[in-house]
Amino acid sequence: MKFMIVGSGGREHAIAETATRSGYEVYTASDARNPGLLAMSKELHVVDILDGAAVAKVAHNVQPDVIFIGSEESLFAGVSDTLRKEGFNVIGASQKTAEIEKSKGFMRKLMEKYGMHGRLRFKTFSNINEAIRYIDEYPGSVAIKPTRQAGGKGVKVIADIQAYLKEEKSHAKKRHVSDIVEQKLSKDLEDPILIEERVEGVEYTLQCFTDGTHIVPLKMVQDHPHAFVEDIGPETGGMGSIAGTGNVLPFLTKRDYDTSFDIVKKVVQAIKKETGEPYFGVLSGQFMLTEKWGPTVIEFYSRLGDPETVNVMPQLQNFDEIVNGMMNGNVANIDAKFEEKANVVKVVAPKGYPNERGMGKGHEVAIDFDKVAQSGSHIYFGSMYEENGTYYTGGSRALEVYASADTVEEASQKVEQAISHIKSDWKLFHRKDIGTKALMQKRQDQADLARDIFRYREARGLIGKTIDWIPGIGKIET
Ligand SMILES: Nc1ncnc2c1ncn2[C@@H]1O[C@H](COP(=O)(O)OP(=O)(O)O)[C@@H](O)[C@H]1O
Ligand SMILES: [Mg+2]
Question: What digits encode the pLDDT tens for the residues 319-375?
């Protein structure tokens, strides 16, 4: 069977590999000659993946049995709708339903309207001054975001708890709000600025396949969005990921998993009611375990995550069963089956990423594949290209190095070994702390703290309530 992938990153490389392992013949429509995808694909067609007609032309040429859309921007551009109209079998959300990712404002409004668990207080703005006034009057700390999905750019979370920094923080907030508008991070959306209440806790992702009614959740993964060790530095597209041996992350509980799954289910139902279209494709919840709700929604993806995909796909045992179900429009009674292994992925990026990508572009990288294989790890290609047998960085996240083992710590060590066999004259960096015992303990402590306060609040009927203390007025619960 012919399996066509639309996309170009490490995520698509992992999907291509999983499809090959599951007996499919892989074809790719991509806007880059990703060396990993090239190696996995019978044919790789370079094409503008935001142009539905161009992708459809490739599809008519390939005649695939099924098309899997990896890239969110393709979904936002309506590529799945065009392909479906032309009669192809597509796994990928329609343009209308992918709004759940594209517009964080749409997502927040939907959660509000349906009174869902895990929602946050928010407001969207088109006017910079109104947004700033709202922030100034806001009784707590806020997250300032472009309303539109901007690929990991533009979100600033400002913990405003030290009175002596009030002025500095106020300047920073104003600058972020202006940046969102001036840099057009929300592109075409009506209200480009989203201000939402800041919450605290430990983050994780639950990726799911859905036919619009039934849902097949994959195992939970934790992404590491910050550039540097100890979760500091700028936000990135994700510097690595971990997953435990079971479906539930080691520092979370079955209850956390069930609540998160239930939120995804309710969102699938609500999207159908709201848009009139079933959600058909992949829907992933990015959550934070907070004291306010337990599982709390940070955002939704209308596709698989990256670096989450590279973490779980290599262990997925019945991809073909899921794909068949999707092709028949029904995934009822299908459970994703995984090996009982813990997995770690670490991203290797060139110095310059994420803020000065131009600087990190065009540097030679030497990979000793034999030694990497000996370490028990595997490499997935991200932003890299090959010329005359030499690999060069593309400026963004270059490689994703994956290993599985009986424990997260062991898998992390394997990955470290593998990374020591990746060399460049340009500085490459990765997060050594991902999957270490120390960081796992920190996650456990963060989760325990959120859960303890959550239980305290639960016993007092305070779930989902925001409690503000306003001088001169007193306690306000909303
Ligand atoms: N309301 C919030 N409170 C606290 N932290 C947040 C909030 N929203 C986002 N964040 C932090 O910022 C990161 C990026 O925000 P997110 O909405 O996921 O945007 P992006 O599209 O950039 O991934 C999150 O992973 C989380 O760490
Ligand atoms: Mg995110």
Answer: 999 999 999 999 999 999 999 999 999 999 999 999 999 999 999 999 999 999 999
298 alpha carbon, closest ligand: 1
Helix (H) or strand (E) holding 427: none
Residue 231 Cβ < 6 Å to ligand 1: no
| H/E run at residue 373 | helix 369-374
What span, in angstroms and rounded, lies between the C-alpha atoms of 366 and 217? 37
Residue nearest (by alpha carbon) to ligand 1 atom 23 = 152
DSSP assignment of 64-86: -SEEEE--HHHHHTTHHHHHHHT
Query: In this predicted model, what pLDDT tens digit does every residue of 62-94 receive, in sequence order?
Result: 999 999 999 999 999 999 999 999 999 999 999
Q: How far is the CA of 125 from the centre of ligand 2 (A)?
A: 20
Neighbours of 10 (CB within 10 A): 31
Q: Residue 307, preceding bond cis, omega within 30 degrees?
A: yes
Structural domains of the chain in order of their starting residue, each with its CATH number = 2-92 (3.40.50.20), 121-197 (3.30.1490.20), 202-429 (3.30.470.20)
Give the integer Cα–Cα distance in Å for 17 and 26. 9
Please state, for a pLDDT cut of 70, what percent of the chain lies above it.
Answer: 98
Nearest protein CA to atom 13 of ligand 1, as residue: 155
Count of other CB atoms within 10 angstroms of residue 423:
12
Degrees, nearest 5: CA angle 271-98-14: 125
Is 406 buried (19+), middle (13-18) or exposed (0-12) by CB count in 10 A?
exposed
Give how far Cα 70 sits from Cα of 76, 102, 155, Å.
12, 15, 23
Give kind and range of the element (H or E) at residue 381: strand 377-381
Region of residue 239 (phi > 0: left; psi between -120 and 50: alpha; otherwise: beta): alpha
The residues whose Cβ lies within 5 A of ligand 2, an ion, are: 286, 299
Phi, psi of 118 (to 5 degrees): 85, 15
